[in-house]
Amino acid sequence: MIKTRQLITLTALLLSLPMMSARAANPLDNVPEKMPFDIPYGAPISLALAQQALKAAAAEATSHHWNLNIAVVDSGGNLVAFERMDGAQLASISISEHKARAAASFRRETKAFENAIQLNGSAYVATLDGVIASRGGIPIVKDGKLIGAIGCSGGTGSQDEVACAAGVASLSH
After folding, report:
1. What is the pLDDT of residues 59-108, one digit of tens each?
2. Coil, strand, or helix at residue 1?
């Protein structure tokens, strides 16, 4: 004999079954035709270009009174140039390198990881080796090939990103 409480529970379960099957498809199941972020790797950035990007990023930071750490890596993620501005946060030394390395290794701005976690709810991104989910790492692309990346740290993510963008923009002239 079914009791009233059991009947209510069973009815609620049966009524929820159609709602469970009507859930939206998992966007991660989408299979794109082309590889995203498929920028070919090029020859490593030269010291002269790395220093040019670093100088432009530092000038942008200085114009806003931001004390940043700035790292430029080559296409393999190896450090080529680094600057710690006076008063820059010590913890941000390694973070700036990590941002640059992640941008080069994954061939995308580190903002993509931040967005994946914060805006898209893709927490799995945090499990990928070498990821840093904070903006302020930008690949450097020349002639359609990734030659390196720049990473800034010490300010807010948006401040770091603005300084990095100035460094990258200095190489397009």
Report:
1. 999 999 999 999 999 999 999 999 999 999 999 999 999 999 999 999 99
2. coil
CATH of the domain at 53: 3.30.450.150
| Residue 142 maps to a domain | yes
Tokens 């040019």, residue located? 52
Q: Does residue 38 form part of some domain?
A: no
Spatial strand order in the sheet of 79-84: 79-84, 69-74, 145-153, 137-142
5 located within any domain: no
Q: What is the DSSP string of 116-132?
A: HHHTT--GGGGGSTT--
Residue 105: name the closest of 146, 70, 133 by CA.
146
Q: Give the model confidence (pLDDT) of 37-64 as tens digits.
A: 889 999 999 999 999 999 999 999 999 9
Residue 7: inside a domain:
no
What are residue 76's phi and psi, to 5 degrees? -95, 5
User: Is residue 151 within 8 Å of residue 99, measured between CB atoms?
Assistant: yes
Q: Is the pTM of this model over 0.90?
A: no
Domain that holds residue 96: 47-169
- Tally of domains within the chain: 1
